[in-house]
Amino acid sequence: MSNLFDYLKWRGDLSLEQVPLNDIDSLILSRLSYLPFDGIAPSSLASTITVAEAAEQILQREDPEEGLIMKMDLPFLQEIAESQRFAKLGLCGYTNQVDPDAEKQFAALVIRLLPGLSYVSYRGTDLSLAGWKEDFNMSFCTPVPAQIDAVRYLNDVADAVPGTLCVGGHSKGGNLAVYAASFCRPEVQDRVRFVHNHDGPGFDSSVLASDGYQRITQKIRTFIPQSSVVGMLLQHEEDYYVVRSSQVGLMQHDPFSWEIQRDQFVYLDEVTDQSKFVDRMLKSWLTQLSPEQREQFVDTLFSILQETNATTLKELTLNWHRNAGIVLKSFREMDETMRQNLHHALGLLLEAAKENVRRNLQERPRTRFLPPRSPDATKKP
Fold this sequence. Notes:
Elements: H1 4-11, H2 23-32, E1 49-50, H3 51-59, H4 73-82, E2 90-99, E3 104-114, E4 117-122, H5 129-137, H6 145-160, E5 164-170, H7 172-183, H8 186-189, E6 192-198, H9 205-208, H10 211-216, E7 220-225, E8 240-243, E9 260-261, E10 264-265, E11 267-268, H11 273-288, H12 291-306, H13 313-318, H14 320-332, H15 336-362
Parallel strand pairs: 4-5, 5-6, 6-7, 7-8
Antiparallel strand pairs: 1-2, 2-3, 3-4, 8-11, 9-10
């Protein structure tokens, strides 16, 4: 089945003037903010560099893969830089902030599509432990620093960039896109054409009940793969669309695995039983933990990882033999109260898993033949 690369080959010679922006274009633009444009794309909103020009500078580096989060990002960058559809788009407003002390990771990019039309792209979680810690913090804290920055960023973009705004992101970037569009100024909301959340987590009930979210909810579209885990986390109120992925399990979070038929995603009727199982298990687990207990669990977990002195997942895995020993030693030397809190949280997670296994076994097995999902058919996580 076709994927983003096939789409770029098939649609890449058609400009946005010839064929308007679609959902697949939005996923591509969401992925653009993951690329390491540091020192290349201007931080100012007053000047731009084209996608082709920025790509050339990255590809001419001694190590073009440095700073990439996924290996597929390099051929992806080459493809979009050679396509008429994306090569001449202007990049501006690039920001990339990682602050371990503030437990913040925030990156975003503005893509000037046409006169009077721009796309605000929020990056998802990178390889920094600070970014992953912030993701976990979302389970007990709203807003986290990146969400605050996302709102400020969208308001600043609206002040500097005229016309209509499209807002989107993948993974945590999708969450930031929805949060920013929900809490930006009302006059900015009026200029937003759509908000696309590509397999990003949801929010707590206070966000969903807010006036800002309710004002923008009809413009939000969430896309998740059939075995989604990340996109089913926390709560959603907006409709979502299930996209078929060629990968399995957590690997379906990879947008390069999402299947495409000509100029639209391949839709399914619903998520898999596996996705429903993980969703029920995690929601059941979080329900049993107070916000304070969630915070204790996350802080304890990451305090152990900090003992390795690793700042990124890459550093953590490169020296995994050494780091595993450090983690084990840290656990043994942990304060008794912290150890009990960790055991309690993990015990509840195990019980939630057992309960959902029992529930699945009690349900009558059934075979279902589902038609391809229509974009007009929607469900809520």
